[in-house]
Design brief:
- The protein is 53% helix and 0% strand.
- It is mainly alpha-helical.
- The protein has one domain.
- The mean pLDDT is 82.
Length: 111
């Protein structure tokens, strides 16, 4: 495990770059949500990083950032897509471009 506190600014910069790429304005709620997502992902990956696997004499902080940058960026991009789509993940499109209509589950009187 590695302490995530020294890496907060690093994860924040990644999140701000993703927010700019998606066109979210500075100080917007979307930007704040993406930054928060980066912080949460940082805490999650810091717990599973093993500093003992870094070669002797190696920089643990640099090894952590190099190996985990794509995880933080990927989580931020996924959150940006979710925010852009109104809070849902768009996973597929119906082949006939017909909107999906939820019919509900038929109720059963006998359990």
């Amino acid at each position: 495990m590695i302490d995530p506190l020294p890496h907060l600014e690093w994860s924040r910069r990644i999140a701000l770059a993703v927010a700019r790429r998606f066109g979210f304005g500075p100080g917007s709620q979307e930007e704040a949500d993406i930054v928060q997502t980066a912080y949460l992902e940082l805490c999650r990956i810091a717990g599973r990083f093993e500093p003992l696997r870094v070669p002797a004499g190696g920089d643990v902080s640099h090894a952590f950032r190099c190996s985990q940058a794509e995880h933080v960026r990927g989580r931020c991009v996924r959150e940006a897509w979710r925010l852009r789509n109104g809070g849902v993940y768009k996973t597929c499109r119906h082949p006939a471009d017909v909107p999906f209509v939820y019919q509900g589950i038929p109720s059963c009187a006998v359990f």
